[in-house]
DNA sequence: ATGAAAGCGCTAACAG
DNA sequence: CTGTTAGCGCTTTCAT
């Protein structure tokens, strides 16, 4: 007969096996309560026996939902990826939270220029219900374009310029200010900073925190810029010392750069913290293992991820969300300061 | 009239605007060459003006393809995630390669037991064309289940037990053997190892390499196990020294554990490499920054990713692939040995 | 409580 | 080279 057993079972297959209609099977699959218990039961049995799994494409076509959320990591994010625990941490946080909501995480790596367009197409195609953007660089036009596309979006880190989309960020400046107060309280008077890239909000705000903190001292700022990675911290520290050999305190805008600074200081014969006290930012795992262990400003990386997920899920449901959520940071004091 | 301007434009909208049929528009969208140039041109214009983007769900429904590939990171993988550069590196490699092929990367984090089922459903639903599995633990039944589900799959790391799916791996044992030869060549005679978890192939094979290398020496093995993370390396080194204070060489199965060993050795007054030579495995970024810089066995993490992508793309196209690809490792000599 | 029927947006024969 | 016609597998009124 026409009993093609080939292919994966569809609603129709199940319906026939259970002696019901497609509609009723669909109701059972989607947990409708308006199905007679015994009928539902036999349908469930048929589903199990046939190993039926709904076809998400067919479902999306009619529901206009995909139950998946994109996490976009643009440009530099992927560069930093390899030696930084920030993005992995965010990914975990977002992933776990989405999993609880039974949503899928779709990772879009925006490494090249061309991928920018691909992403836009992808999002436009409504392959995802919403977007979490790890926006980093000021020049990034993606947040705007996504908003214009009418896709729910929330970004990690306040966008540079005016924030037109909701975001999750941490209290960069006040965390740094706490670090500065700590240094000053330690009696440090010649405090330099290794700043992050100034086209990223994190870089700017941490520098602002340093400058604010310095005001209390009435001292001149001493700034060298790095790229958040270790090597740049080593180099910046060397330039700093060349500019002023009497530096007795350093705030580095990332733990990796702080670790780099520690190395340069040691190499140039400075003892930490006796000669120079050092404080970092991030509180990544590696900070506990520097020599000496790094005093640092802790930021709740995992929570950033869960909050991002929470917000985007709300937005996708059409609910309102706060324009911004700013999570606290706190100073973790270890032996380097 | 019935000119509802609402909603996103569909093929039909474009067809009407360009005075053609849906089929022809579809041809243009999909780059068919059998369309008269001027017609194609006007269709393209209409597409641009209307901002038409194909609906992937509708397309998948008929083509049975989704043009996306899942990368599954099971259990421990996500745990290690935070302080290890391996998975981020693989993700980047896979992501970049897929991007070139215009495929999407869907990241599935299998953190909990329940997610195992979710993943199976997801894959069964054919939301992805193929799966790249970062299989790690011996007990993992996922490779089998996926194969049984008839989904193209390739794993990162040879599965424990018999390999039923194609995999990409590196030459663990021979890399370690090179490390052992180096140690022996340095005159080391009391060589211990900090092994990785023995329910992972990487852990086992690196231990096998150590044992092989030791044979040349005719010496008794000295083994403590860690979990690839830094803290476990610190602890294992301490146990090792307690068992034999005369150890003069150490092979650690990961750079992170090697770094841990370095710290314990320093704390206990051993000079590296004068008293004890240390070699790690992985060649992560951090290995260049340990004190002293770590001699280590390099594995091409990024290439593992690109190879994985390459293989799964082949499989999805229905082509044959080698049952296994094993990439070379090489010893990178730095000051710790 | 259940079924019939329509249709989501697209591709793929098949004619012409 | 182009249009017509059939669905892909599912949800969802609307009847019954």
Total domains of chain A: 3
**Residue windows where pLDDT falls under 50 for at least 5 positions of chain A:** 1-5
The succession of helices and strands of chain A, N to C, reads HHHHEHHEHEHEEHEHEHEHEEHEE
Per CATH, what is the topology of the largest domain in chain A? Rossmann fold
State the major sheet of chain A.
6 strands, parallel
User: Cα-atom Rg of chain A, whole angstroms?
Assistant: 26 Å
Which CATH-level-2 architecture of the largest domain in chain A? 3-Layer(aba) Sandwich
What proportion of the residues of chain A form beta strands (DSSP E)? Answer: 15-25%
End-to-end C-alpha gap of chain A: 82 Å
Mean pLDDT value of chain A: 90
Strand order of the largest sheet of chain A: 2-1-3-4-5-11
CATH class membership of the largest domain in chain A: Alpha Beta
Number of helices of chain A: 13
Helical proportion of chain A?
40-55%
> Oligomerization state of this entry?
homodimer
Record field, number of beta strands of chain A: 12
Mind telling me the CATH superfamily name of the largest domain in chain A? Response regulator
User: Globular, elongated, flat, extended or rod-shaped: what is the shape of chain A?
Assistant: elongated
């Amino acid at each position: 007969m026409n009993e093609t057993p080939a292919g994966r079972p569809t609603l129709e297959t199940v319906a026939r096996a259970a002696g019901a209609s497609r509609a009723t099977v669909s109701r059972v699959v989607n947990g409708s309560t308006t199905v007679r218990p015994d009928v539902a039961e036999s349908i469930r049995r048929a589903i199990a026996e046939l190993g039926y799994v709904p076809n998400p494409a067919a479902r999306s076509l009619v529901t206009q939902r995909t139950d998946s959320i994109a996490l976009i990591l643009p440009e530099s994010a992927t560069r930093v990826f390899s030696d930084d625990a920030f993005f992995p941490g965010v990914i975990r946080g977002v992933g776990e939270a989405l999993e609880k909501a039974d949503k899928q995480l779709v990772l879009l790596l925006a490494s090249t220029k061309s991928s920018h367009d691909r992403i836009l197409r992808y999002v436009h195609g409504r392959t995802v219900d919403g977007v979490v953007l790890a926006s980093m660089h000021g020049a990034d036009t993606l947040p705007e374009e996504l908003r214009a596309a009418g896709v729910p979006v929330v970004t990690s880190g306040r966008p540079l310029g005016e924030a037109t989309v909701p975001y999750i960020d941490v209290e960069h400046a006040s965390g740094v200010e706490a670090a500065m107060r700590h240094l000053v309280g330690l009696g440090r008077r010649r405090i330099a900073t290794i700043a992050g890239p100034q086209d990223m909000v994190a870089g700017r705000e941490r520098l602002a925190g340093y400058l604010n903190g310095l005001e209390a001292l009435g001292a001149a700022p001493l700034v060298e810029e790095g790229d958040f990675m270790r090597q740049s911290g080593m180099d910046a520290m060397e330039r700093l010392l060349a500019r002023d050999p009497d530096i007795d305190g350093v705030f580095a805008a990332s733990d990796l750069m702080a670790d780099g600074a520690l190395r340069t200081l040691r190499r140039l014969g400075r003892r930490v913290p006796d000669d120079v006290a050092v404080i970092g930012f991030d509180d990544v795992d590696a900070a506990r293992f520097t020599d000496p262990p790094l005093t640092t400003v802790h930021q709740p990386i995992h929570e950033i991820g869960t909050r991002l997920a929470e917000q985007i899920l709300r937005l996708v449901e059409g609910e309102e969300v706060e324009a911004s959520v700013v999570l606290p940071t706190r100073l973790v004091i270890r032996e380097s300061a």
